Amino acid sequence: MTVRLNFGYNKLSKLGFMKFFLIILLSGCAFFPSGIYHRVQKGETLWRISRVYEVDLDELARINHLADATKIRAGQMIFIPGAKERKDTLAYVPKRPSPERKEEAKPPPELIDFSWPLQGEILTGFGKQSGKRHQGLDIAGKEGVPIVAIYGGIVTYSDNKLRGYGNMVIVKHNEDYSSVYAHNSINLVKEGERVNKGQAIAQVGATGWAEVPHLHFEIRERGKAVNPVFYLP
Fold first, then answer.
1. Domain 122-230 fold
2. Where are the domains of the chain?
3. What are phi and psi of 39, to 5 degrees?
4. Does domain 33-101 have CATH number 3.10.350.10?
5. Which are the contacts of 137, defined by CB distance < 8 A and separation ≥ 6?
6. If pLDDT is split at 50, 70 and 90, which confidence band does 58 have?
7. Burial grade of 175 (CB within 10 A; 0-12, 13-18, 19 or more)
8. Is 32 in a helix, a strand, or coil?
9. Which residue, 150, 161, 158, 165, is CA-closest to 220?
10. Are 33-101 and 122-230 equal in CATH topology?
11. Which of 162, 184, 214, 218 has a 20 to 30 A CA-CA distance from 95?
């Protein structure tokens, strides 16, 4: 009798475990976000991918376990949570809301193909440095080397009145973006002047609080300083 009872108990236990496992397996889908994988193309940045798929940049870096989100490579697979179809980010132009829906939330910033203002070693990165917040990149360069506009726009500042920055140029590209170029030896453009992408707007120097010749460079998105490396190819 005892043997039969034990056998029945073991059988029920196994059935119960299998049922429990099946429930976990079926409900486990909720633990994994839906989405697709995007294969990185040459020239893409994580920022551009996040903009096209309308996914938060930090969330995209976190869910893909990217310790350095600036170093994605061609051919790498990036998981896009919530996405249903793959998009060609290099050709994709995000849709603006129709005029009758202007009162709704402001659309995401326009996609712009920026270029580097100067080729050189990054001396200081974006973010906290020695306990202080650094709002851009410090890029090494030889005295007098041309600094170019990363995109076309209007020069809204060209002076040396801001303490510590020395000779500085600010270019407004559109309603979303502007760029900053500081510590210049000389500024080559004036306020109100329209400049083109790749046009020389200043020369590398060490004015202001600069100990060696370099460019302090910032990108501002709707007035807020953002990490330039996410926006540059």
1. Glucose Permease (Domain IIA) (2.70.70)
2. 33-101, 122-230
3. -85, 120
4. yes
5. 122, 124, 125, 126, 216, 217, 218, 228, 229
6. confident
7. exposed
8. coil
9. 150
10. no
11. 218
Q: What token pair was written down for 200? A: 């020389």
Nearest Cα neighbor of 207 from 169, 179, 171 is: 169
Block residue for tokens 């290099």: 90
For 7-16, the pLDDT digits (tens) are 454 554 555 5
Task: Please identify which residue in the block is written with the tokens 């202007």.
Answer: 102
* C-beta pairs of 166-175 under 8 Å, 24+ apart in sequence: 166/205, 166/206, 166/207, 166/208, 166/209, 166/210, 167/202, 167/205, 167/207, 167/208, 168/208, 169/201, 169/202, 171/195, 171/201, 173/112, 174/110, 174/112
Neighbours of 26 (CB within 10 A): 9
Lookup result for tokens 């893409």:
44
The C-alpha atoms of residue 224 and residue 133 are separated, in whole angstroms, by 13
Strands (E), the chain: 35-39, 77-81, 122-124, 127-129, 132-134, 137-140, 146-148, 153-159, 167-172, 177-184, 186-187, 194-195, 200-203, 214-221, 224-226
* Whether pTM exceeds 0.85: no
Amino acid at 146: P
Structure tokens at 215: 């460019």
Q: How many residues does the chain have?
A: 233
